Structures
1.
Amino acid sequence: MRFVTIGLLWTCSIVLGCSQAAVPSPSATSQNATSQKVASQKTAPQPDRYSQPCLVDVSESVGIVFRHDAGPLDSYSMPQVMGSGGALLDFDNDHDLDVLLIQGASNNSANSPSGLKLFRQDTPTQFTDVTSTSGINSQGFGMGCAVGDVDNDGDVDVYITRYGEDSLFINQDGGQFLDATAASGISNLQWGTAASFFDYDRDGWLDLFVVNYVDYFPGSICEDGAGRRDFCGPESLTGTTSKLYHNVSASSSSASPLSASRAGEGPKFEDVTVASGIARRVGKGLGVICRDFDMDGRQDILVANDGAENFLWIQHDNSAFSNEALLRGVALNRIGEAEANMGVVADDFDRDGFSDLFITHLREESDTLFRGTQFGQFADQTVASGFGVTSLPFTSFGVAAVDFDHDADLDLAICNGGVKRGLRTNSSDVDDFWRDYAQRNEIYLNNGRGNFVSEDGLGGSDFSRRVEVSRALLSGDMDNDGDVDLLVTNCSGPARLYRNDFPKLGNWLTITAQDPALKRIALGAQIQLIAGKLVINREINPSTGYLGSNDPRVHFGLGNAPRYDAIRVYWPSGNGEIEEFPGGQLNQQITLVRGTGRILAGGSP
Amino acid sequence: MNLNALTKRAIAGSVLLLCGLSVWFYFSNSSDPRPEIPLPDITTAKLNVASLTNERYEQVKLNPSSAEAWGQYGEVLMAHEWNSEAINCFEVASNLAPTESRWLYLAGVMLDRRDPFEAVNKYEAAKQLDATYAPLYLRLGANLQRLNRLDDAEAAYRQAVKLSPQEPQPIIALARLESTRNKWQQAVDLLEQATKIAPTNREALVELTRAKLVLGTPQSLSRETQAALMSGEKFEAMPDPILQSINNHENASRMAAMKADATATEGDPQKAAEAYSELIKQRPDLARPRINLATVYMSEGQFPLAMVTLRELVQLFPDDPMGHLLLSYALQATQATTEARTELETAIRLKPDYADAHFALGMAEEQNNEIEKAITAYRSAVQSNARHIQARTALGLALKKQGKWDEAIAELFSAVRLSPGDRVPQAYLEKAIAEQSAAKSNTDKPTP
């Protein structure tokens, strides 16, 4: 009897325990749970290996006080959610980086407290707002900018894109800018987003490529699936053509790039969009990279199109361009889908000598890594590189390829923020309206073979802790301490300067490549650094990412290499000139001056 | 311990009662899922969307054990982008109807891209129940490929090919997979097969061209291939009857808009006008139906009716530049040129890159014989849209009138380049070249 009683009691207890699990119920596949599940499945959760913050917000302490104004939000005007960018530039030639931040909706006059801002770096810990005396101001909704010396007079000029007419500001001397748009012949009335200066015809004068977005009608009403007002997306809008402006300053005066600057004369441009073939395609451009993708010595152009096929404009003999994105494997992802395509960087992530591409996308689309192969072909290697599912929860915009820890491989920083309503956050970093759009940022560290692992904690870094609607991500060595820092712009939020405090795993070198005949940095020059077995290739191009212009110097992390053995520069002159400079010590900034090295190939111009 | 009989009976009775209750509790819970019915925040949704959603929610409340009720609720949620709630509903429906593959498939579709791991699980479960649905294998293959499970992806694509041998998409997917593995010759073979099935399929033509390029195979591009490379059209998707049936649940106004547009395209203006008028009643908050209605009226020459609609439009939507432009057309047609110009200027002020408005202004200036002003307006049109063939052509002709031959010919030449099949700019260009030659000959002739 006793045993029967005990047996019955035992059976009852088991039955009672099991009954809790017997009810079939929906899985916890809420959006939040999905994100967490996806994130946890990428690798086993990594403990935060950093004992102190790696990226520290120093904005206010150094005097960079800027808040983006998206304008009245009840209109859900599309430009508002696209954000604005900026530039890291040395406009006063004092060898440190200054900061230009583009404003969105406010009255952008120089005297408006909420307008565009130009900050001059006085010391690494002190920036001064010099907007009111700079001469740079603008109307309309500011988007991005390009920086370059278009008149070869030794100081950088600025082109600002807008929803509205773009502007070209020429640096007269030491930071006094003049609006030279009308005189220059440039007139872009369309919605300009990204822009890049580059010398496509290799005549020594910087030309301009402007990416245009969509044909947006103000007052358009867009809704989400439930019929609530939301920002319009590109899918329902027509695309536009990008613009190519040829710098004809050389032919418009007797001066040549080799002579002294022509005081009092502004640069002149000719719209060659149709003649060059660029007008053959209509796109929805947000990002651009000008680079020699097929390694034939001529600059080509990659345009990242939002929700549509990317364009890869390959330049041919007669300065004509043809779009070969589909044929070279960068128009679509590996499944044959067009993705959002916002920010874009190009660099050699796996150090195989071929340039790779990384492009950022919407939530529910993984950011894409295209590996470059021979003959200018690309292959989507997103999943193999570690990005398959980790980036799915995020809408990513700005991106920067930086060796944060100097271990000789390029890492990736990505800033995020939605464009459509998503999972609502409780973040106190944003106003209530933006809590449906705010997301955190990401850092991916390269393991040396072009495979990436997401680092979430970073020692409690501000960069990955903040949850905002981030847009442009600019990179540069702001404090000249040998590592690369980051600057993030946010929709309706403050710009944030993050100082790089990563523990360093090796040595570094920063290079400026100067062409004295042109009195400027040689945009488009390819730098090859050799340090023992390490051979690292970079190209000088500050116009990468999203809506921004970065530090034009080239930064190398070199691991435990004790010194560098040689540097080769492929000057963008069109005569195949390769110049070699001797080796030297690491952990310094150097300037390579054309004509002072040993010519390996090609001749002097 | 020596228990008396009564106590023993009491203990035994209590134990039996306890066991009985436990057993009853277990079986009653296992037969009644009682999951919580998800309800999204419909307080801010459009009235018709909220009403439809609520209706389906109530159906589920009334029939919590009905897979069909849960599934249909999920379909409505899916159509209105309440994604996590839709997934929940499909999962419950699949639990309640474990032999029905549809709900598992739809759950997989919702999880596509959001969670490829879980999407694969759903598709695998669905194919156990119905191994004949080709689109399932295509989606399964795509998710497996996203997870770098290439061999499994290949198996899925091959099954899709087997089930739908007349559709090119699975063959193309297989070819793309082979190219990912650098097996370009295999990719070419598959793509040639796809182009035989669908000779004008853009995706097949493009991928085949690329694969041959990588292999270094010399090729001359057919006209279809050239068109495929130049076109920006999206690739054609494989037909998916299950998803197509979901579209029927989209909210009524979207369906009405589609119907109205379809009627307009069919060339029955009377019916199109009726459909748009009905849509305006349903959705007075939208500008587009009024714009389309006005366009229909204008295409039939019914300008007074168009003007009524357009005046209403610009009053309700003063910041919509298209309304002002269309109103200017209607005013111009009724000779109210001054008011037409004001509307054009408003359109341009609202949207400075409005190429059509600049072009219309240029035409108005030309009618007033203000050729220089017309040139300025046409230039603005071209700067706003480099591919505006009419504006370039008009600009060229206006420049010609002013004797600016080189510029005129350059613009007409650009128009021809942008639209090589269009005879109109070609004819103007040829005429301009001829006239320029004649003009030069006259100036070169020595005076007697």
2.
Amino acid sequence: MEEHLKDKEETLNIVVCVKQTPDTAATVTVEDGKISWGDAPLVLNPWDEFAVEEALRLKEAHGGEVTAISLGPEDAKEALKQSLAMGCENAILVSDPSFAGLDSLQVSKVLAAAIEKVGEVDLVFFGRSSVDTDTGITGSQVARRLGWPALSLVAVINSLDPESKRLEVERMLDESRQQVAASFPAVISVVKEINEPRYPSFMGIRKASKAEIPIWSAAELGLEGDLESALTWPDVYAIPKVDTECEFVEGETPEEIAAKLVDRLIEEKVV
Amino acid sequence: MTNKVLVYVDHFKGEALPASWEAIGAARKIAESLGSGVTAVIVGQDVQSLAKQAIEYGADDAVVAESPALADFQPEPYADVLSKAAAEADVLLLPTSGRTRELAAMVAVDLETGMAPDVIEIAVDDGLVLATRPIYAGKLLSKVVIKERKPQILTTRSRAFPKPEPDASRSGEVTSLEFELGEVPTEVLGYKEAAGGVSLTDAAVIVSGGRGVSNNPSLTPPDEITDEKEQEIWRAQQGFGLVGDLAGVLNAAMGASRAAVDAGYIPYANQVGQTGKVVSPDLYIANGISGAIQHLAGMRTSKTIVAVNKDPEAPIFKLARFGVVGDLFDVVPALTAAFKERLGK
Ligand SMILES: Cc1cc2nc3c(=O)[nH]c(=O)nc-3n(C[C@H](O)[C@H](O)[C@H](O)COP(=O)(O)OP(=O)(O)OC[C@H]3O[C@@H](n4cnc5c(N)ncnc54)[C@H](O)[C@@H]3O)c2cc1C
Ligand SMILES: Nc1ncnc2c1ncn2[C@@H]1O[C@H](COP(=O)(O)O)[C@@H](O)[C@H]1O
């Protein structure tokens, strides 16, 4: 298309929802029902890196801007700073004392309200799931609340046209990949196959460290007194330590070892 | 509909996931405590036969929603139908899959209720379902209760609940659900087949390979492969060939560590772990896998773990029931031969 025909409205307005989570290598413990990960750093939820990367790639290809949104306490700003450092234009922290400990039914309500407040959004990206709660449902719930098509577990975006507002993707089913078309606005959650996330650039990190991140409260989103989780978590505990004493199978030759091991597996009725 | 406990039968193009029947087994236990029966819900096109199967596996009756518009799984119309079917229920169970996580999440929004995915244990306490689910990549377990809202929606992890024995003599009423679909916002264009073979999540036995499968310096690649990376992949293919032979005699699925996937030895669909599939087979044989915490996250609930590794200090041995310290290029073919002999294949 000729450059002068490219009017501003055809660029993309993208939101990416990101969460702050403990590093996956952290040793997680529970004391008095409280989960702790020691000194391990909080990071951008690893799955969300793929979401940020895909949003940035689309922006770079078609023009537009990317806004990262995180719901969480003040320290969730670190996840937003990492998103800014990777190349997002804007970041918004959605934070309120009444948001503490919400389940995804309510988190999705808050995020949907925030996306509507951003306004004129074309695409919203989500990661596959949070590595702390391992739920993987928030994106679908936000899509349902907004009434927008849900394109979940997307492994590749085959085409996207800002003019006709149509895109085609492949989503992962356990049995195969389903090829799906939809129109904007749409909600997309991505899997790790979709791309290789970039590292923040030095310039990006510097810019992010100086960024003022606005905070949106429940009142600003019109959600006061409106949030009650459906779930309660009466107990959380470390997995019971199973003392598997490893039985090392030894022998002179691989054949002897193999025969012994197979015998043991048959004795123990494993096979 | 009379029963207060519903099970959604998940299927791909009319073929049910075995975990659907496991969910029916779990639902029976809940229903007994609540003094109710179990109704199976089936959504799709040409899926009547699933209703009969569901009843054989323990459902008391079934409702079926059929329409050409439901021929392909799409979350929105499926959620429209399931929300209608489940509006009056106390409990809705679904087997965990990529489809049902999303479907259950949307039904929870429609009915403004709670949803807990991937539960591994269920009890009934004071008339409410008390579920257990792994969090933090399986390092912790969390109890979950959905209070004061109905239905309580849960998805059950594959192989966490026993599959009931089917009983062909069982019978029950099968009714059609009346429904209207909202506008379907997506269009299914087609499918790209995934690599065949035994499905990882349903497999009773999994044989896996890690970075170690490429580590055999004595194997000489053909002359035309000169690139170092290509040579490594060629070696890995020989290694995975051996792993595949072992999987073959055990009728097992093939798994892999992320290191093996990232190095291009095997597709991502085979990856086990935090960023791959979560599996809990009866037997998991890890070959040339060190046992990083993110790998363990995907397989620690396996009933019996066997590890083959050169390094006696490899962390995988801390979880393994049986270990062999040795070179997988020697041990794996010997194991294949020994199983062949003993299992009479
Ligand atoms: C956010 C995040 C998510 C991750 N998700 C996953 C995931 O889902 N799944 C996953 O697996 N990993 C995951 N990882 C990666 C994980 O941390 C490890 O890097 C990976 O599991 C290592 O794979 P490996 O055991 O095959 O390789 P290595 O750690 O390199 O181990 C290779 C092993 O093979 C042994 N060996 C070598 N040669 C031979 C031989 N000839 N015979 C026998 N033994 C041999 C060695 O002794 C060694 O123990 C993740 C990491 C991060 C940061
Ligand atoms: N508190 C949050 N703030 C912003 N995005 C979130 C939040 N929680 C979850 N998400 C998004 O939803 C995805 C799925 O999360 P979950 O349903 O919690 O597993 C994540 O990968 C994020 O993209």
